[in-house]
Amino acid sequence: MGYKVVVVGATGNVGREMLNILAEREFPVDELAALASRRSLGTEVSFGDKTLKTKDLAAFDFTGWDIALFAVGSEATKEYAPKAARTGCVVIDNSSLYRYDPDVPLVVPEVNADAVMGYTKKNIIANPNCSTAQMVVALKPLHDRATIKRVVVSTYQSVSGSGKEGMDELWDQTKSIYNPVTEVPPKKYPKQIAFNVIPHIDVFLDDGSTKEEWKMVAETKKIVDPKIKVTATCVRVPVFVGHAESINIEFEEFLDEDEARDILREAPGIMVVDKREDGGYITPVECVGDFATFISRIRQDSTIDNGLNLWCVSDNLRKGAALNAVQIAEVLGQKALKKG
Length: 340
Ligand SMILES: NC(=O)c1ccc[n+]([C@@H]2O[C@H](COP(=O)([O-])OP(=O)(O)OC[C@H]3O[C@@H](n4cnc5c(N)ncnc54)[C@H](OP(=O)(O)O)[C@@H]3O)[C@@H](O)[C@H]2O)c1
Description:
Layout: E1 3-8, H1 13-24, E2 29-36, E3 44-47, E4 50-53, E5 55-56, E6 67-70, H2 74-86, E7 90-93, H3 109-112, E8 124-126, H4 130-146, E9 148-157, H5 163-178, H6 211-223, E10 229-236, E11 243-251, H7 257-266, E12 270-272, H8 284-287, E13 293-300, E14 307-314, H9 318-335
NADP nicotinamide-adenine-dinucleotide phosphate binds next to helix 1, helix 5 and helix 9.
């Protein structure tokens, strides 16, 4: 016996990937509803070897459905997630709306799977920001061994992290540079993204940081340990899928680079590819469609007593969103919504 599952935002980048991952991981689905806006009514989406027609979220009744995987942005989530949750359907949400709510668990199953049980307060579980998800998978096993004091992270984030419109803008702008007849001015991004990098994701805050950077700080504290200090610089790069991060970590205790490599090799969700030779590391194009968080370039930081540097790459639509959401559903199934 399986679950009645709703995928909300099924025509989007994350929604389509959630459908793929539910099928790939053979999540026990008895019935599946694919929802999007009225604009997409009847649009066909794939679920394994089946084709489903999308229904209108505004007209959908969640009564009797077990789990709803939401990927529609904060505005639509605010309107529809509480409605779904009130019917008894457990919402697993990809937007940032509930991540900092003390009554909503923020979960990365490799790190804090037990926190899932906090869902009962609101019937909602939050998925973290894509850049946080892959980073905490890497930090947790190292924190358990040597206690992290401070993290300095710089991100190289792909355009799929800002939805379908971001991917279209990179594609159209790139073509327009080769064929200048059609100019494609920046619309989704504040500056040209093709052949450029932009040190600005989400809105600016009073202290000069951006909301994306703040999210990495606040979410790492909520998921791993409130004592960890994080400082982040988040940058959008002209890559379609796959986020990369350069992470510098300062520990309480000394951690040798070889031991760190061994710890990461054994850790859940991680694949270490770290050969000190040409191409002996992972780049974003190589991680697309994969489940793992890839770690390369593990090395001592000799400028401080207990420091390490590493390079972390993952498919942002998968570990950064869809895969993490499906993993949460799997944990929920094992711990709470047992079937058959
Ligand atoms: N992309 C990432 O790496 C990533 C990572 C973590 C979290 N997230 C979060 O996941 C969510 C979705 O992101 P995405 O990248 O998949 O965006 P996207 O590609 O732009 O897709 C958005 C989806 O939401 C639907 N939608 C939007 N407004 C709606 C409304 N009022 N009613 C019903 N459906 C509506 C769209 O339906 P139509 O096609 O009908 O418009 C589409 O299916 C966002 O909250 C985002 O912040 C994304």
